[in-house]
Design a protein that fits this description.
Blueprint lengths: L1 H22 L4 E6 L2 E2 L10 E7 L3 E8 L5 E11 L2 E7 L13 E8 L4 E4 L4 E3 L6 E6 L3 E2 L10 E17 L2 E5 L4 E8 L2 E2 L2 E2 L3 E10 L12 E5 L2 E3 L3 E5 L3 E8 L4 E5 L2 E5 L2 E6 L5 E9 L2 E10 L4
Length: 305
């Protein structure tokens, strides 16, 4: 009987202690831990941020453990922190400076003065595999960013092997970044830099992608696109006085305006046929659309007899 009473008393005491620990507030609160990072990306997310608040100052040992509970890294050992916010950076490397295998790891915090060890419920994933651009499609190869809403931009549709944010490079310089990580998305290039349309010419576009950890895909092979406002098929034309000549006009505008000597007119892009001046000499043909102009020298000679 005495033994039974003693066992009941011990059980009650243990229950009371357990319930007391449950009611005791945690010395750590307000945890904020990065979910995924890449220690080899060479980017701002190459370290994981482990943050929490201490109710009271204490000496901490912070370690990272794998799924088996084995310690793989010790970013903090025996360092005293004051009450308040604690921020610790973890580089994801082992003791030899090599990136740890891709896996999930959990922060474990030991408070020496409190004599408590707490494993944070926030796993940190190491991801060192960059995404892959599986396909790339362009809506057009020739466009004119002149603001008339006709072929003003190039749309690049792409697919990745995982969710990522698209990165657009123009002549080797980054000119675009999508807002959300997706595996199937599109980017738009309007042919402008700092709000100003670029001059006519050939530009080479490449696409890359960045995953949540910061790993970047290998850029695609350059694809050439052309910015063209108004282009003429020839820059020199030999014509007979009073006779007609033809010149090819390329433009995305509905109509272009031409001027030759004292005459001018409107025409659709395509083959422009104009009567040459009746006096021999050198003239300049101007063809304009949406504020852009192309020129050609017209050499008028006397009719052959």
């Amino acid at each position: 009987m005495v033994l039974v009473v003693a066992l009941l008393a011990a059980t009650a005491t243990a229950f009371a202690l357990t319930e007391g620990l449950k009611l005791e507030p945690s010395p750590i609160l307000g945890t904020a831990v990065d979910k995924v990072f890449s220690p080899v990306c060479g980017c701002p997310s190459e370290e994981a941020r482990i943050s929490f608040r201490l109710r009271e100052a204490d000496i901490l040992d912070v370690a990272l453990i794998d799924s088996d509970g084995t310690v793989v890294a010790r970013p903090v050992q025996g360092e005293r922190f004051e009450r308040g916010r604690v921020v610790i950076r973890w580089d994801g490397l082992d003791a030899d400076g090599t990136a740890l295998p891709e896996a999930e790891y959990r922060p474990r915090v030991h408070l020496r003065e409190e004599r408590r060890t707490i494993v944070l419920p926030n796993p940190i994933e190491i991801d060192v595999t960059p995404p892959v651009v599986e396909s790339l499609r362009l809506s057009r190869r020739v466009f004119s960013p002149d603001g008339d809403r006709r072929a003003d931009r190039v749309i690049l549709g792409y697919e990745l092997d995982e969710d990522g944010r698209g990165l657009l490079y123009v002549n080797g310089r980054r000119r675009g970044l999508t807002r959300f990580p997706r595996s199937d998305d599109r980017m738009v290039w309007n042919g402008k830099v700092n709000g100003r349309a670029l001059p006519e010419g050939i530009y080479r576009l490449q696409l890359s992608a960045q995953d949540r950890a910061g790993n970047r895909a290998t850029r695609t092979e350059p694809v050439a696109v052309r910015i063209r406002y108004v282009a003429l098929g020839r820059d020199r034309v030999l014509a007979t006085a009073g006779g007609r000549f033809a010149i090819r006009v390329s433009s995305d505008a509905r109509r272009v305006r031409w001027t030759l000597g004292r005459r001018s007119g409107l025409a659709r892009p395509g083959t422009l046929r104009i009567r040459a001046p009746r006096q021999k000499g050198r003239y300049t043909l101007r063809v304009s659309a949406n504020g852009r102009t192309a020129l050609a020298a017209i050499f008028v000679r006397e009719p052959l007899r």
